[in-house]
UniProtKB/TrEMBL annotation:
Organism: Acer negundo (Box elder)
Keywords: Transferase, Ubl conjugation pathway
A Pfam family per the record: UQ_con
GO MF entry, a single one: ubiquitin conjugating enzyme activity
InterPro entries, per database record: ClpP/crotonase-like_dom_sf (IPR029045), Enoyl-CoA_hydra/iso (IPR001753), UBC (IPR000608), UBQ-conjugating_enzyme/RWD (IPR016135)
Database matches in Gene3D superfamilies: 2-enoyl-CoA Hydratase, Chain A, domain 1, Ubiquitin Conjugating Enzyme
Protein name: UBC core domain-containing protein
Residue ranges occupied by any UBC core domain in the UniProt entry: 303-461
Length: 587
């Protein structure tokens, strides 16, 4: 009730509107010191209003981040001299009316958007922010010594810890302005931008915080700020203690959300590291590397060259998340693509590599496409020889609009056609003449066996320029692949219908008839896959036990606080994520 009352009162317009509070639906709240004619100097009542504003925003669950700024030509020029006696002789223990205390107590991150002057009390308010974004003309000035005012909002202690004691002593004892550029070099200011970009940059930083786990943002800010008050040894102990409390008290639902968040973040990082489309150099293992490089592929004015560049642009902009392409800087007539098998098909989680070559009269003729089959025919359209039979390539019969159209057809259409029309749920029917009475289920058994064998070949010798992609993909999907192998072998799920959360259809559970040949094949393949897929150090025995335990019951997300093994497992995931982050930073 008190929180709602404070919020309602703060949002009511004041007669002078000297402290403005604006809450946005995106989770950002704006606090503006609004006394521009006096360069936003603070009166006693303004300080009280600002303190109450931050107390209200701290309690408002819809607010994720606060941006503090000043209107007009200054951020805040300090205490209004006409109110100085009231301020300086007031009750220093009245924390409810102290804006700096309430800012320090506020759990939400506070971003200071500094334009113009931040003088003395304004400087101290800026130091109470968690992040500072400053316009190029901003200046921070400590005038305590000039006017005979003793600091009481922490400037004498905070500044020295941020920019170093020698710089702080000079700035405070001489009342010399610290410019925005100096502040950035010394670690006082996070970002310096043009005046017109100030709020935009502050909002960008705020949104960067909002997209992260809200609970962790609040806890992380708290442990940083509280740790700064301690020596390093006690600060490290504080971090360890709070980390233990956090994990110990985590519910199953919180643990599940954390797993989902980490998985999404890990995929985003990996996507940044291994882009869907990129230009590389080494084409030495490409199927068509011996093709003669015609002049049309090096002449930037040729129609073929320009058309291929348009193809590159389409691929760069429009590739789906499940298709990755590498083109070659010195051989624009070649490219390599990999398609991730779709869920709901016997090809799920497998990788399918294709080497592609543009003919010299492209696009009059369609491209050459070679499937890297490893001698396995796992689809009627994909031959063991590597030939690809597809209407759009003019290698399979089809109606007029299904054939290659020089004016409209693209490489992207070829890849999407392979993914959707060839690598489908029932590939048996890709072959003309195969009727519904035929055994498409037994064909899917054969397909899945060949998919598993293809995985082993790819893990042994991954295609050039895709080495990290192959390793990371199978490391991420290892447990799902192995669970699927067991489920299909035991007849618990129809082939292609396994998912991370179990069968994709409740009717597809138990008593699925599988052939003896398929069971025997999987009995041989599962140990081989375990050996190859456990390269990250995961215990083979642990994986086997998990696979066996899930047969009788659905695996539940454990309470991380009650199970040390689960905590160790989670920390391994964090370790992998950290490796991705480090790699990204190095690049």
């Amino acid at each position: 009730m008190e929180s709602n009352q404070i919020k309602a009162e703060m949002d009511q317009p004041k007669p002078e509107n000297l402290i403005l509070v604006n809450r946005e639906p995106n989770g950002i709240a704006y606090v503006t010191i609004n006394r521009p004619r006096s360069l936003n100097s603070l009166t006693k009542s303004m300080m009280t209003d600002m303190a109450r504003a931050f107390k209200s925003l701290d309690r408002d669950e819809s607010v994720r981040v606060v941006i503090l700024s000043g209107s007009g030509r200054a951020f805040c020029s300090g205490v209004d001299l006409t109110a100085a006696e009231d301020v300086f002789k007031g009750d220093v223990k009245d924390v409810e009316s102290d804006p700096v205390v309430q800012m320090e107590l506020c759990r939400k991150p506070i971003i200071g958007a500094i334009s113009g002057f931040a003088i003395t009390a304004g400087f101290e308010i800026a130091l109470a922010c968690d992040v500072l974004v400053a316009a190029k003309g901003a200046k921070f000035i400590d005038t305590h010594t000039r006017f005979g005012i003793f600091p009481s909002w922490g400037l004498s202690q905070k500044l020295a810890r941020i920019i170093g004691p020698n710089r702080a002593r000079e700035a405070s004892l001489t009342a010399t302005p610290v410019t925005a550029e100096q502040g950035e070099r010394w670690g006082l200011v996070n970002h310096v931008v043009e005046e017109g970009e100030l709020m935009k940059k502050a909002q960008e930083v705020a949104l960067g915080m909002i997209k992260n786990n809200q609970d962790l943002v609040l806890r992380y800010k708290s442990v940083i700020n509280d740790g700064l008050k301690l020596d390093l040894g006690n600060a490290l102990a504080l971090e360890k203690e709070r980390g233990h409390e956090y994990y110990k008290g985590m519910s199953k639902e919180q643990f599940k959300k954390m797993q989902e968040f980490i998985a999404g973040l890990e995929q985003s990082i990996k996507k940044e590291i291994f882009k869907n489309f990129d230009v590389v150099e080494d084409y030495s293992d490409h199927r068509y590397d011996k093709n003669k490089s015609e002049n049309c592929f090096t002449n930037t004015e040729s129609c073929v060259y320009k058309k291929i560049m348009r193809e590159w642009k389409i691929l760069d902009n429009d590739l789906p998340d499940s298709i990755f392409v590498r083109v070659y800087e010195k051989r624009i007539d070649l490219l390599r693509a990999v398609i991730i098998g779709a869920q709901g098909t016997p090809y799920h989680d497998a990788l399918f590599f294709f080497d592609i070559a543009f003919p010299s009269d492209y696009p009059t003729k369609p491209p050459q496409v070679f499937y890297r089959s490893h001698g396995l025919r796992l689809n009627p359209n994909l031959y063991a020889s590597g030939n690809v039979c597809l209407s759009i390539l003019n290698t399979w019969h089809g109606e007029g609009n299904e054939k290659w159209n020089p004016a409209k057809s693209t490489i992207l259409q070829v890849l999407v056609s392979i993914q959707g029309l060839v690598l489908n749920a029932k590939p048996f029917f890709n072959e003309p003449g195969n009727s519904p009475t035929s055994s498409w289920e037994s064909y899917n058994e054969k397909v899945f066996v060949f998919s598993c064998k293809t995985m082993l070949f790819q893990l042994q010798i991954p295609p050039k320029n895709f080495e990290s992609f192959v390793a990371d993909h199978f490391q991420d999907r290892a447990f799902t692949i192995l669970r699927a192998c067991k489920a299909y072998r035991d007849g618990r799920v129809s082939i292609g219908l396994f998912s991370d959360n179990g069968p994709s259809s409740s009717s597809e559970i138990n008593n699925i008839e599988v052939s003896r040949k398929f069971r025997d094949s999987m009995d041989k393949l599962i140990p081989q896959l375990l050996l190859k897929l456990s390269r990250d150090g995961t215990s083979l025995q642990d994986m086997l036990e998990k696979l066996d335990n899930e047969r009788e019951q659905k695996i539940e997300e454990p309470n991380i606080g009650d199970n040390k093994k689960d905590l160790d497992s989670f920390l391994k995931v964090l370790g992998k994520l950290w490796s991705c982050l480090c790699l990204n930073l190095e690049e």
